[in-house]
């Protein structure tokens, strides 16, 4: 498969600027791979497709307010700093993206906040957009992290052109988010409401949680036609023994295992034993899944509608089958489904 196989025309008005009014009332396209059928439902209808003993695997990562705005010394130019990951807590070193990148060089200082009490110095240029910053702050590490949180805002994807609103703080976070570390939400999970989770639980559905801190690797554009040459950025991953027991127990009993989101699917496929069972894991993954690919753990998945040429679309195509996913996307455009982070969902059986 080549990059060009994943290109399609996506009308701009189908990129979701806002989430659906209620989490579980987004639309849900249901694709049955065996029957080759496509149905149109609502997300809360998900409950009708699962039975007692089935397992849903959730990514409990939590988005932190990763987007800061600072001013460059001397010129006062407004610079956006997107925090990617902490490199060294003691030295307060962070891997970041800056915009506009052309204005920022090694040695430049950036000032944050009305009182300019937080200062950052550029100490390394890692890529054309990426930089390493050392933050200078007169308080303890806890106070420094609090300051970052106070100054940061919810890192909505760039395609959303409006300003961040108070409701985004809540809605760009799954209701089961626990461990802070993601710079983007695992968006398939945004559709689960407390009510729907409770109903699934009452119906005997089991849940396993993994933690994959979504970085920009998931969203970095693929710039090579030959997909085997694309390198994914690594993302931090944790799979506990108890999550493995829940998943492997369900597989043993021939119950359904559903990956909620592409991040969960990547996590599961990053730690598979030779017997095709799930192993505990602590570390990083740069797993890139594209067709053809033989999946080992999950036999169904929930996902959103993805943008052209994205690694997420490639994974979903590998899972669904290229022709069927193409047809599904054509129908989604015709039926005016909403795409991307705040968009509608798809259940692939």
From TrEMBL:
<keyword id="KW-0328">Glycosyltransferase</keyword>
<comment type="pathway">
    <text>tRNA modification; tRNA-queuosine biosynthesis.</text>
</comment>
<keyword id="KW-0808">Transferase</keyword>
<protein>
    <recommendedName>
        <fullName>S-adenosylmethionine:tRNA ribosyltransferase-isomerase</fullName>
        <ecNumber>2.4.99.17</ecNumber>
    </recommendedName>
</protein>
<dbReference type="InterPro" id="IPR036100">
    <property type="entry name" value="QueA_sf"/>
</dbReference>
<keyword id="KW-0671">Queuosine biosynthesis</keyword>
<comment type="similarity">
    <text>Belongs to the QueA family.</text>
</comment>
<dbReference type="GO" id="GO:0051075">
    <property type="term" value="F:S-adenosylmethionine:tRNA ribosyltransferase-isomerase activity"/>
</dbReference>
<dbReference type="GO" id="GO:0008616">
    <property type="term" value="P:tRNA queuosine(34) biosynthetic process"/>
</dbReference>
<dbReference type="InterPro" id="IPR042119">
    <property type="entry name" value="QueA_dom2"/>
</dbReference>
<dbReference type="InterPro" id="IPR003699">
    <property type="entry name" value="QueA"/>
</dbReference>
<dbReference type="GO" id="GO:0005737">
    <property type="term" value="C:cytoplasm"/>
</dbReference>
<comment type="subunit">
    <text>Monomer.</text>
</comment>
<keyword id="KW-0963">Cytoplasm</keyword>
<dbReference type="InterPro" id="IPR042118">
    <property type="entry name" value="QueA_dom1"/>
</dbReference>
<keyword id="KW-0413">Isomerase</keyword>
<comment type="function">
    <text>Transfers and isomerizes the ribose moiety from AdoMet to the 7-aminomethyl group of 7-deazaguanine (preQ1-tRNA) to give epoxyqueuosine (oQ-tRNA).</text>
</comment>
<keyword id="KW-0949">S-adenosyl-L-methionine</keyword>
<dbReference type="Pfam" id="PF02547">
    <property type="entry name" value="Queuosine_synth"/>
</dbReference>
């Amino acid at each position: 498969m080549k990059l060009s196989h994943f290109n399609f025309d996506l009308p701009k008005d189908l990129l979701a600027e806002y989430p659906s009014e209620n989490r579980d009332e987004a639309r849900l396209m249901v694709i049955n791979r065996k029957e080759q059928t496509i149905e149109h439902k609502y997300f809360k209808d998900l409950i009708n497709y699962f039975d007692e003993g089935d397992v849903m695997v959730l990514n409990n990562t939590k988005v932190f307010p990763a987007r800061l705005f600072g001013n460059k010394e001397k010129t006062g130019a407004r610079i956006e700093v997107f925090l990617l990951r902490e490199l060294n807590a003691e030295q307060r070193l962070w891997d970041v993206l800056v915009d506009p990148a052309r204005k920022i060089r090694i040695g430049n200082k950036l000032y944050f906040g009305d009182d300019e009490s937080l200062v950052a110095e550029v100490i390394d240029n890692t890529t054309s957009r990426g930089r390493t910053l050392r933050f200078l702050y007169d308080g303890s590490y806890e106070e420094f992290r609090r300051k970052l949180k106070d100054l940061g805002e919810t890192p909505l994807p760039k395609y959303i052109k409006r300003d961040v609103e108070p409701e985004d703080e809540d809605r760009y976070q799954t209701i089961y988010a626990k461990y802070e570390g993601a710079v983007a939400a695992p968006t398939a999970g945004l559709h689960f409401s407390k009510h729907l989770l409770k109903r699934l639980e009452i119906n005997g559905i089991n849940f396993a949680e993994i933690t994959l801190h979504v970085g920009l690797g998931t969203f970095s554009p693929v710039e090579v036609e030959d997909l085997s040459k694309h390198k994914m950025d690594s993302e931090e991953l944790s799979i506990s023994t108890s999550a493995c027991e829940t998943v492997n127990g369900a597989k043993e009993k021939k119950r359904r295992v559903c990956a909620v989101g592409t991040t969960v699917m990547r996590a599961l496929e990053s730690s598979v034993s030779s017997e095709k069972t799930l192993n505990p894991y602590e570390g990083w993954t740069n797993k890139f899944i594209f067709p053809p690919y033989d999946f080992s753990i999950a036999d169904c998945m929930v996902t959103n509608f993805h943008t052209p040429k994205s690694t997420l679309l490639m994974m979903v195509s590998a899972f669904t089958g290229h022709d069927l996913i193409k047809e599904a996307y054509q129908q989604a455009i015709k039926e005016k489904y909403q795409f991307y982070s705040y968009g509608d969902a798809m259940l692939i059986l």
